[in-house]
Amino acid sequence: MANLRGIFIILHAAATVAICLFSNPLAALEEKDEDMLFIKYHIHITNDTPDDMPFRAPNVHLHCKSKNKDVGNRKIAWHEDYHWDTKINYFRTTLFFCYVWWKSKERYFEAFKATRDEERCRYYHNSCLWSVREDGIYFSNNNATWRNVYPW
């Protein structure tokens, strides 16, 4: 009889956990984490190369994509802003990377990485701000302080 009671308690506990998880799959996450999955993040890349060249600065060329989405090849004119939106997936593996080239310089960089950017990009309107400059690719999460994260 004691064995039946133990089995019943285990089955009851398993059923309770299953009901909680399947009725609300996000119940296992903290409230703060749950909100992160529904936030739309804005990734901006701006051509801030020097304008002191004859006939303006050459365009910056970009090709950005993730595992599931290719945002395509783009030519960005001087001071033009290219942007797209994304959300973080359930497993927090969302990653957008870009190949950038300007004149004879080229570089790959991670434009959005969920584990790195879910907190830091919320500071300024849920935006990750990137600036392509003469000496590299700069990041800002407040549009005031810029850091050269990816030198050429």
Structure description:
This protein is an alpha+beta fold and 152 residues long. The chain has two domains: 2-28; 37-151, Immunoglobulins (Immunoglobulin-like, Sandwich). The protein contains three helices and nine strands. The strands form two sheets. It has a five-stranded mixed β-sheet with strand order 4-1-7-8-9. The longest helix has 22 residues, at 2-23. The radius of gyration is 23 Å and the shape is elongated. The N and C termini lie far apart (73 Å).
Throw out a few tags for this protein:
152 residues; alpha+beta; Immunoglobulin-like; 2 domains; five-stranded mixed beta sheet; four-stranded antiparallel beta sheet; 3 helices; 9 strands; 23% helix; 41% strand
How would the blueprint of this fold be written?
Blueprint: H1 2-23, H2 31-36, E1 40-47, E2 60-65, E3 70-76, E4 81-87, E5 95-102, E6 105-113, H3 114-120, E7 127-133, E8 136-140, E9 147-151
Parallel strand pairs: 1-7
Antiparallel strand pairs: 1-4, 2-3, 2-5, 5-6, 7-8, 8-9
Ends apart, CA distance between termini = 73 Å
| Strand fraction | 35-45%
Specify Rg, calculated over alpha carbons: 23 Å
CATH uppermost class of the largest domain: Mainly Beta
Helical residue percent? Answer: 10-25%
Unreliable runs:
23-32
What is the number of domains? 2
CATH topology heading of the largest domain: Immunoglobulin-like
**Overall geometric form:** elongated
CATH architecture call of the largest domain? Sandwich
Note the main sheet. 5 strands, mixed
> How are the strands of the biggest sheet laid out side by side?
4-1-7-8-9
Order of helices and strands: HHEEEEEEHEEE
Q: Name the average pLDDT.
A: 84
Tell me the number of helical segments per DSSP (H or I, 4 or more residues long).
Answer: 3
Per CATH, the superfamily of the largest domain is: Immunoglobulins
The strand count comes to 9
Structural classification = alpha+beta
Main location: secreted
Pfam families: Self-incomp_S1
Protein name: S-protein homolog
Family: Belongs to the plant self-incompatibility (S1) protein family.
